[in-house]
Design goal:
Elements (H helix, E strand, L loop, with lengths): L3 H6 L1 H15 L17 E8 L3 E5 L2 E10 L3 E9 L4 E10 L19 E6 L4 E9 L7 E11 L8 E8 L8 E6 L4 E5 L4 E8 L8 E7 L5 E8 L7 E8 L8 E10 L5 E11 L1
Parallel strand pairs: 3-9, 11-17
Antiparallel strand pairs: 1-4, 2-3, 4-7, 5-6, 5-8, 8-9, 10-12, 12-15, 13-14, 13-16, 16-17
Length: about 280
């Protein structure tokens, strides 16, 4: 009998399986399940999903296999597991996709990232399963991945089922406001030896503690760099003035740089502003 659990012990087999699933989960592919003939490997047949699956913009692209959720919601699933050899286990994995799997800057707020790793033993050749997965009350806003896997008694793996989850927090759905007080325009010009300086004001409907500002910039060639990450202090209240001063680590080339200021509140609601910086000789 093969299982997800035993695969954890047998490192080489599970490592290859886990790696292949992870790489697949970071791509925008979806399972192709016909449901006509029962092949040797097991099948996962989705019967009902609530809230409904729809097309949403995820990481800048339209994803037709997306689900919109809030902290007031429960993700409800009804599906069949079928296997000629008999089913052994199914596995549910929900994990964050805040940086669109770019493995970039730390996405830290005081909200709780939604994480589920559930492995269930099952028996039979045709099993109907109902799962109800409540969204945490203090969930961190953002994109998540949902993945459902199945394995039969001989270790054959079903084609995984993947959804993109777009999660809001019902207790705070308002993004912070971010405005420049200096400069008064959305572009400035500096020499190679000068610093990039700006003053911004952040306001929100709730206390801003637990949020942050991420500052990145694009070079004239389009390469992205991190300039600063600033976490809001405990005594910030609902409003904060933020002074930004940045010296390039090496002498910059002349050209146009785009600085992106992203403000996040405590649960991850986001606002951004951009500043064009022209570096002159």
């Amino acid at each position: 009998m093969q299982s997800f659990k035993s695969s954890f012990i047998s490192f080489p087999k599970f490592a290859l399986f886990a790696l292949s699933v992870f790489l697949l989960s970071c791509e925008k592919e979806t399972p192709k399940i016909s449901g006509k003939d029962l092949p040797k490997k097991p099948l996962i047949l989705m019967k009902n999903v609530a809230p409904e699956v729809q097309t949403l913009e995820i990481c800048g692209q339209e994803d037709p296999f997306s689900i919109a959720l809030s902290s007031d919601d429960t993700l409800s699933l009804n599906f069949n597991l079928r296997a000629l050899n008999g089913m052994s286990q199914y596995k549910i994995d929900i994990h964050s996709n805040f940086d669109c799997h770019a493995h970039g800057r730390l996405a830290k707020t005081t909200g709780t990232p939604w994480q589920v790793l559930k492995i269930v033993d099952v028996e039979g050749t045709d099993i109907e399963i109902t799962e109800k997965l409540p969204v945490p009350d203090d969930v961190q806003v953002g994109n998540y991945h949902f993945m459902l896997q199945g394995i039969d008694l001989k270790g054959n793996e079903a084609e995984w089922v993947l959804y993109s989850l777009k999660v809001n927090n019902g207790s705070d759905e308002q993004s912070p406001e971010l405005e420049f007080s200096e400069p008064t325009s959305d572009s400035i010009a500096i020499s190679k030896t000068e610093k990039v300086e700006a003053k911004l004001n952040i306001t929100d409907n709730k206390a801003i503690f637990g949020g942050r500002i991420d500052v990145t910039y694009l070079s004239p060639s389009g390469t992205e760099f991190t300039a600063e990450q600033y976490f809001f202090p405990k005594d910030g209240g609902k409003e904060l003035d933020y002074d930004f001063s940045f010296a390039f680590p090496t002498t910059p080339s002349t050209g146009s740089y785009t600085f992106v200021f992203e403000a996040f509140d405590a649960v991850g609601n986001e606002t951004e502003r951009r500043l064009k910086v022209y570096v002159l000789d």
